[in-house]
Amino acid sequence: MDTHNLIVMANRIGDFFAAQPDRDEALAGIAEHLRKFWVPRMRSEILAVLGTDAGAELDEIVVAALTTHRARLEPAPAKA
Fold first, then answer.
1. pLDDT tens-digit map of 58-76
2. pTM, 2 dp
């Protein structure tokens, strides 16, 4: 999937959860939404842009959610 589109979608999710008064709940909500509704490949791609030039397009709340909840978002390793 196009990385730019993933960033746009992630920022829209972040906009929705940013309205929550509790920041920790907002970060968890963003991460949970991504975990539930994004396939592993999409989650891997969005995590890969953190700290890159492309990742600069991510809203701060999305970066915080991805960073804080990275372990929950990383796809499980393939079973041998």
1. 999 999 999 999 999 998 7
2. 0.92
Cα–chain center distance at 68: 10
∠ CA 40-1-50, rounded to 5°? 65
**From CA 13, how far away is CA 5, in angstroms rounded?**
12
Q: Provide the residue ranges of all domains of the chain, joining segments of one domain with +.
A: 3-73
How many degrees, rounded to 5, is the angle at CA 62 between CA 57 and CA 34? Answer: 115
Alpha carbon distances (Å) from 69 to 2, 3, 80: 23, 20, 26
**Which two tokens mark 65?**
């959610």
